[in-house]
Amino acid sequence: MDAVSEAAYLALKALMMPRDTNAHGTIFGGVILSYMDQAGAIGARHALMSAGAPEKPLVSVAIDRIEFLKPIYVGDVVSFVTNVIRTGKTSLSVQVVVSADRDGDSVEMTRGTITYVTVHLGAEGHAPVPLDA
User: Which residue has the higher pLDDT, 130 or 95?
Assistant: First the structure.
């Protein structure tokens, strides 16, 4: 397999809704984490497919150092930009940067790294498989 691209990729964009708020009126961190996990998987899949790897299931195995830098509010349009920062034999780590459109500018709100592993889905569990197999 060719080297996985390290280009930034807009994996997901979402409008934050009232149902996603916490008791303080800002968007609940768990909602942002869920979007980050989805975006990271989309970005990882995009990078693998762009490098010529065959399509296979990806599952998240680790989330590392999520930093909530600024609050996100109802009505914010939030972008989830991914960048593959490490590849291994069966896994890859994706940095996810979360930004909100504020007064015409893109402002970074949250960032973190999520590691995904490619797996074979079987009745007895998910066995890791090489990225390029």
Answer: 95
Q: What is the mean pLDDT of residues 22-43?
A: 96
Neighbours of 41 (CB within 10 A): 21
Give the model's pLDDT for residue 2.
44
71 φ/ψ angles, rounded to the nearest 5 degrees = -70, 150
**C-alpha–C-alpha distance, residues 42 and 50, integer Å:** 12
Structural domains for the chain: 9-128 (3.10.129.10)
Residues 124 and 133: their CA atoms lie apart, in Å, by: 20
**pTM of this prediction?**
0.91
Could you tell me which residues are beta bridge partners of residue 107? 100
How are beta strands 91-102 and 9-15 bridged, if at all? unpaired
| Strand 91-102 versus strand 125-128 pairing type | unpaired
